[in-house]
């Protein structure tokens, strides 16, 4: 019985760490795309990374910035308002504009 429990715990930790690495890879790809002014690519990868942690204000802000640069203003506005709603003015004070 202990053998099965140990196996289940091991698999669960492996799956969780895989998600973290995948999210990190998406964020790195998005930041590289953004630096290269590929705003559509950045928007796509930041959105994928956001699927792992929906309540991360810095990631939501990056989605909003990428959408704005890509001229997807409606999508940007939705994400900016999510940042303002979760943090108020906070570190992203320009999100309220």
Explain what the structure shows:
Helices cover 76% and strands 0% of the residues. It is built from 4 helices and no strands. The protein has 97 residues and is mostly helical.
Distance between the termini: 58 Å
Q: Kindly state the percentage of residues in helix.
A: over 70%
Strand content: under 5%
Broad shape: flat
Give the helices and strands, then pairings.
Elements (H helix, E strand, L loop, with lengths): L1 H34 L3 H12 L6 H13 L3 H15 L10
Short recap of the structure:
By secondary structure, the chain is mostly helical. Helices cover 76% and strands 0% of the residues.
List keywords for this structure.
97 residues; 4 helices; flat; mainly alpha
């Amino acid at each position: 019985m202990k053998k099965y429990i140990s196996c289940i715990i091991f698999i669960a930790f492996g799956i969780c760490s895989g998600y973290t690495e995948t999210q990190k890879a998406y964020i790195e790809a998005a930041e590289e795309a953004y630096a290269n002014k590929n705003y559509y690519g950045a928007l796509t990868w930041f959105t994928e990374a956001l699927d792992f942690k929906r309540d991360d204000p810095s990631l939501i802000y990056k989605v909003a910035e990428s959408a704005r640069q890509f001229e997807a203003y409606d999508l940007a506005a939705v994400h900016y308002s999510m940042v303002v709603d979760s943090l108020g003015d906070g570190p992203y004070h320009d999100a309220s504009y």
